[in-house]
Amino acid sequence: ASVQQSSDTYATVKRALEAKDTKYADKSFEVFLQGSYGNDTNIYAESDVDIVIRTDSLYDYDTSALNPQELQIFNAAFTAATYSYADYKGQVVQALQKSFGKNDAKPGEKAVKIKASGNRRSSDVVVASEFRRYYSGALGPLYIPGIFFFTPAGKQISNYPK
Description:
Elements: H1 2-17, E1 29-33, H2 35-38, E2 49-62, H3 68-77, H4 85-100, E3 105-107, E4 112-114, E5 123-137, E6 140-150, E7 156-159
Organism: mine drainage metagenome
GO molecular function: nucleotidyltransferase activity
Protein name: Polymerase nucleotidyl transferase domain-containing protein
């Protein structure tokens, strides 16, 4: 029953995040499970369902492994995003609070915490964006995609792979 409950919780939260009336509905994003549920290795019946919503409409990057020529290529091709992480996170929090209520969907240190209710398990929604770690490739700069997010204190946390 707990696996089904987790699956139902994920489906409910995913539906709320993918609603057509969210302010970020026109952006490119993906919703997926993270951690033990995503890997089908969850053994704790009471653990939170960890969900990530990741946009690639904005991204951050690390170019420290590129040589000067590759960095020049990167800089020539790069355009700054007009959509900020703070805007995106605010819009996701707003969508979750619209679906689950302000008391049941609260931003925490690393994720938006959604309280358990009825058959819905508690869940953590990480509001993330794409992070690209660039490296030297045979034909120029390549990157490994990951995710990043900011804590309320402004600390950036990045993970690889997504």
